[in-house]
Design a protein that fits this description.
It contains 13 helices and 11 strands. The chain is an alpha+beta fold and 423 residues long. It folds into 5 domains: 9-66, SH3 type barrels (Roll); 80-199, no CATH class; 202-239, no CATH class; 249-350; 392-423.
Length: 423
């Protein structure tokens, strides 16, 4: 056993508990005022009353500081998590007084909520008879009451059967009783797991509307359906565009221009994809992507469509292995994204000058005027972009009519075999 450290004036400070000052327990130091060699100490006794005493060095010799009790940290982690979840569910009604309403696919009326949460639940364990006119919602009220009680009681039942199973040897139970306890424990565990999954009803997401302001807004999205919480959260996040599993290159280009990515580093117009991916994972105002493959797929499509270019490496600050309007390649985070103008100049520098001799037009016969050379045919545009505001009240019908109109107009052009529309 380690020897006790003598109590010194420096150790007497607010928050320390002193033993020996009062009989029958320790006191808590609230305030200390040095007065020469003495200390004027204000303390609080076990009954909560304040007191004051003047302590000299010889008085400190008979006192000692009480060590704060430390809780052991050797308990099983799974049982601690279970107890924490049970306590959370048991007290969930304090955070969400209408938890059964928010975890059910019903929309109760105010009288039904008042009956369940204003009369039935506060007076548990009294029994009630629900009697009302047909269609007044007695089934909904009973369902809400049962669900609320189930949410609050599932954890208690599981912990009770878990405790019995843990002490099954000390209780000297027979084989039949052991089988019954095991069956009840399994049933309670299944019910508790189901209640835990149902308790997770909201997906919380942080959003930063203004890139220049550090304030974050918390967005709560209610989860729908049933199943594993992570699966429902993933579906909801994708549907609400909180996480992108596909990223159109036009949107990528718009974000690069909006936030000035191409001018953020030197040389300008050249952006390392690895740095862009780190920025997407760091800043809340940027779109959230499922993984780096979504970014690389958008880069590949954007290079094929000519939105921007791609370089395999840099040599002396100049891009090498430039691709623009080409497909059949796999970009990587070690590569570089190029602004279209930078990519065109770099690609022109990479292409060697043509070795073909210049074409000489034959002279017309004597007496005939030279015929003017017809201009080369201009390529027809293959991509069109349309921006139109649609009313949110009838969005699907308006979008369908707009798509049909676009297809009909483009189908009239000669040589059009296939039309693809991105929304």
């Amino acid at each position: 056993m380690a020897p006790e450290v003598p109590l010194t004036p420096e150790r007497v400070r607010p928050g320390v508990r002193l033993l020996g000052l009062l009989p029958g327990g320790s006191v808590r130091v609230e305030h200390v005022r040095p007065l020469g060699e003495a200390l004027q100490v204000t303390y609080r006794d076990p009954d909560g009353r304040l007191g004051e005493v003047l302590l000299y060095p010889e008085d400190l010799a008979r006192l000692r500081a009480e060590e704060a009790p430390r809780f052991p940290l050797d308990a099983p982690g799974d049982l601690f998590r279970l107890a924490a979840e049970a306590k959370r569910i048991r007290l969930a009604y304090l955070f969400d007084p209408m938890m059964a309403v928010h975890t059910s696919l019903v929309e109760p009326l105010p009288p039904q909520i008042e009956a369940v949460y204003g009369h039935l639940l506060p007076k548990t364990p009294l029994r009630f008879l629900l009697a009302d006119d047909p269609g007044a919602g007695k089934t909904i009220m009973a369902g809400l009451y049962i669900r609320e009680m189930a949410l609050r009681g599932a954890s208690r039942r599981y912990l009770a059967w878990k405790s019995i199973w843990h002490d099954v040897s000390a209780l000297n139970l027979g084989d039949t009783d052991k089988a019954q306890v095991k069956s009840r424990l399994t049933e309670a565990e299944t019910t508790l797991n189901t209640r835990l999954e149902e308790a997770y009803r909201y997906l919380l997401s942080f959003h930063q509307p203004d890139p220049k302001a550090p304030n974050l807004e918390l967005q709560a999205v209610r989860l729908q359906g049933s199943g594993k919480p992570l699966e429902r959260a993933a579906i909801r996040a994708k549907n609400e565009s909180l996480v992108f599993t596909e990223w159109h290159p036009q949107i990528l280009w718009n974000d690069l221009e909006r936030y000035g990515f191409f001018t953020a580093q030197e040389p300008q117009g050249i952006l390392r994809l690895g740095w862009l991916w780190e920025a997407l994972c760091t800043y809340s105002y940027l779109p959230r992507l499922k993984d780096a493959e979504v970014l690389l797929a958008s880069v590949r499509k954007g290079v094929e469509a000519g939105f921007f270019g791609y370089a395999v490496r840099l040599e002396g600050g100049r891009p090498q292995g430039v691709l623009l309007g080409e497909g059949g390649f796999e970009p990587s985070l070690a590569g570089f994204l190029l602004a279209k103008g930078v990519a065109e100049r770099a690609k022109a520098e990479e292409e060697p000058p043509s070795s073909k001799p210049p074409r000489v037009e034959p002279l017309p016969p004597e007496g005939e005027a030279a015929r003017p050379t017809p201009p080369p045919p201009q390529p027809k545009p293959r991509r069109f972009y349309l921006k139109k505001e649609l009313p949110p009240t009838d969005l699907l019908r308006e979008a369908d009519l707009l798509a049909k109109e676009i297809v009909l107009q483009l189908a009239k052009e000669p040589g059009v075999g296939r039309v693809r529309i991105y929304v």
